[in-house]
Amino acid sequence: MPRAYRPPAAAPKRGGCAKAASVFAVAVIAVLAVVIATLVTFIARYFSEDLVEPMVPQGCLVTVEDVSSTLTWEQSVNASIIVGESIRRGLPARAATIALVTAYQESDLRNLDYGDADSVGLFQQRPSQGWGTVEQIMDPWYSAGRFYEALVKVDGWETGVINDVAQAVQRSAHPEKYAQHESKGRAWASALTGHSPGAVSCIDRADNPADPGFLTDFIAIVWPETVSVTTSETGSLLVETDSDTTAWAIAQLALVRGQRAGLISAQAIDQSWTVSANQYTYWQPAAPAAAPVVLTLR
User: What's the distance, Cα to Cα, between the start and end of the chain in Å?
Assistant: First the structure.
């Protein structure tokens, strides 16, 4: 018998599978794009943070021999008053060292309005122990002066162990803690009393306007008779003194008070310094100027 006719089988429809495959491919590409974008962003952030150096904090640096130490601007101004008061009283640099060491331990060179019991100020002096009123002690000039008054009454303070001399003044519950600050206290005292020339540099990003009184008033307090200040035609402060040590003390004390004063450069004897916003700059040789110390403000 002849075979019955059978129409050829219809070819399977592929449209649905092809569409599904296309959708899957698009999804995979989208996921990969997100992953790659995330990875690129992470790598860019990681390496940019790694390569960009952090900005150096503002403040001042002292380097004397192998000792370096930094202060914030708040600490710097307080250090200038502590050292300035020792010079005003005619005390040797050792007195400033002991005072700085003590203030480091007691307040970290900050004029605190709080403390243990009723202690306040740079030296954490107590009104109840006869150091003065809270208002008086919160004046750094007063508190530094009271510290020196007590210091010079300590037998052997000129030659004794600094930690022990500080403890004799303070009578702290932690009598051994002052010694840890001795090296940086010595460095700052040596520089700010003028015995270590060219040892201080500062970073300032505040761009404060000139405030010459912040320097001239300070100089008048510390050296009321032996130092004179005039103003040049360009507005720089010309400081006259017969002592090279005093010249360096004035110059470096001016630096640590420089942010509020708007100081941009200083010259002491034959060296000059210029402020920077991002690095500690070195003192450089300079030709003789119109005065032993020249302070230029904005």
Answer: 119
Task: Name residue, tokens 């040789």.
Answer: 285
CATH of the domain at 163: 1.10.530
pTM equals 0.83
* pLDDT of 53: 62
SS3 of residue 213 by DSSP: helix
Which stretch of DSSP H or E encloses residue 297?
strand 293-297
- Is there a contact between 99 and 188 (Cβ–Cβ < 8 Å)? no
Q: Report the length, in residues, of the chain.
A: 298
Q: The tokens of 57 are what?
A: 């904090």
Residue with tokens 């540099």: 201
pLDDT, tens digit, 9 for 90 and up, residues 190-230: 999 999 999 999 999 999 999 999 999 999 999 999 999 99
What residues make up the domain containing 262?
204-298
What would the pLDDT profile of 109-156 be if each residue is shown by its tens digit? 999 999 999 999 999 999 999 999 999 999 999 999 999 999 999 999
Q: Do both 254 and 179 map to the same domain?
A: no
Instruction: Note whether 221 and 84 are within 8 A (CB).
Output: yes
The token pair at 124 is: 């954490």
Strand order, beta sheet including 200-203: 67-71, 59-64, 200-203
